[in-house]
């Protein structure tokens, strides 16, 4: 779809962003000073201000015009002499002779017309919007963010204030909308459903008019955890059935026949966050045709033990040449993730200083 620049942030380019004109589009002064031709001193013959075309005449050798940063450089100019290096007396400018082209941004120096500046699949961020505007675009051809419905399950969840005994505050309701947006989706609606009756979850999943349904809680094997049973009843195709990670092992991805993708995030909040980054993020990227780049590999300076056969996921902060574990990363506790710069995937047998893949967190 074609979308005005003001509404394209966070979406994905559906075609290459191509420069329709060279950039800069004209020879531009990079300094406030004097455009000079030939060897100095120079006779001052006029001025060039930004936003106006140059009237046309060529600057003769021995002549100079006062020029502002961003103004069109007159043809014939050899260089721009910064005002700090110039002395002016009686309509004459003196200063060092600069190498040809100094302080001139030449037409097409940043990019020639027709060059591809960003491939289809690039997420539209602030810099890309600015680049598109610099090129003269008013709108972009983008892919719609996949529509997501979130279903937060749990009879024990409270929505406000200090919870009563036996109840816990819903941490995932507030966490999911910005997280889904950060991972490239559009959360159209978020509903809370009780564990009992189990038909409530089925109703909420079946009612979803979305490409992706995220269910939190209910991923385990307890009597109140109905998601796996529901998916079996719906003859779902399993794409991921549990993950060899800690936390987050009950996470799942499946697709009931003719239905949306269902992502099951474990109820423990930090486990849910890690599963969202490892399962939901890649799914949304695929649905938006965003290529998944290789994860950055950075030395983890702390000692973090992962159980045999499992990848441990821990929040980390930048620390000079590497990252350090923050702590506060038990499955139900979001303290480390709230302070972390990234999630690190730590394999069994990792030694301090060895690189680990990182998933970046936005704060
Ligand atoms: N027999 C087994 N039991 C469990 C296993 C297992 O392998 N075998 N895995 C454990 C792990 S690990 C996790 S994680 C949980 C996943 O359980 P569910 O996804 O079914 O989630 P719940 O049982 O509903 O809740 C687990 C835990 O998280 C709290 N919770 C749930 N939703 C929220 C929320 N929105 N905000 C805050 N806290 C939430 C809930 O109160 C529970 O304490 O299963 C283990 N059991
Ligand atoms: O693996 Mo659970 O997902 O530890 O919290």
UniProtKB/TrEMBL annotation:
Its EC number is 2.10.1.1. Its cofactor is Mg(2+). Keywords: Magnesium, Metal-binding, Molybdenum, Molybdenum cofactor biosynthesis, Transferase. It comes from the Bacteria. SUPFAM superfamilies: MoeA C-terminal domain-like, MoeA N-terminal region -like, Molybdenum cofactor biosynthesis proteins. The keyword Magnesium applies. Pathway: Cofactor biosynthesis; molybdopterin biosynthesis. It is an enzyme of class 2 (transferase). Catalyzes the insertion of molybdate into adenylated molybdopterin with the concomitant release of AMP. This is Molybdopterin molybdenumtransferase.
């Amino acid at each position: 779809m074609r979308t005005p620049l003001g509404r394209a942030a966070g979406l994905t380019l559906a075609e290459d962003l191509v420069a329709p004109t060279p950039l800069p589009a004209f020879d531009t002064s990079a300094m406030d000073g004097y455009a000079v031709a030939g060897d100095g001193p120079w006779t001052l013959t006029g001025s060039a201000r930004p936003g106006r075309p140059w009237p046309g005449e060529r600057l003769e050798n021995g002549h100079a015009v006062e020029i502002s940063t961003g103004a069109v450089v007159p043809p014939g100019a050899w260089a721009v002499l910064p005002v700090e290096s110039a002395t002016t007396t009686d309509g004459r400018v003196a200063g060092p002779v600069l190498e040809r082209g100094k302080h001139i941004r030449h037409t097409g120096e940043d990019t020639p017309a027709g060059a591809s500046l960003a491939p289809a699949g690039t997420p539209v961020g602030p810099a890309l919007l600015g680049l598109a505007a610099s090129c003269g675009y008013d709108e972009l051809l983008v892919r719609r963010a996949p529509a997501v419905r979130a279903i937060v399950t749990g009879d024990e969840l409270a929505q406000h204030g200090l919870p009563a005994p036996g109840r816990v505050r819903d941490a995932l309701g507030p966490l999911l909308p910005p997280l889904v947006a950060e991972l490239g989706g559009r959360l159209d609606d978020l509903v809370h459903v009780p564990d009992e009756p189990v038909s409530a979850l089925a109703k909420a999943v079946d009612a979803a008019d979305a490409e992706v349904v995220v269910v939190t809680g209910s991923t385990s094997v307890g009597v109140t955890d109905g998601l796996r049973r529901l998916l079996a009843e719906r003859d779902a195709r399993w794409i991921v059935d549990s993950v060899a990670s800690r936390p987050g092992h009950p996470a799942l991805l499946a697709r009931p026949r003719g239905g949306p993708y269902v992502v099951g995030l474990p109820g423990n909040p930090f486990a849910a966050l890690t599963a969202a980054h490892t399962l939901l993020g890649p799914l949304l990227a695929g649905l938006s045709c965003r290529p998944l780049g290789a994860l950055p590999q950075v030395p983890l300076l702390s000692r973090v033990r992962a159980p045999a056969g499992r990848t441990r996921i821990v929040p980390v902060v930048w620390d000079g040449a590497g990252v350090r574990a923050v702590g506060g990363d038990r499955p139900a506790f979001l303290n480390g993730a709230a302070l972390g710069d990234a999630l690190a995937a730590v394999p069994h047998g990792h030694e301090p200083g060895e690189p680990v893949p990182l998933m970046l967190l936005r704060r």
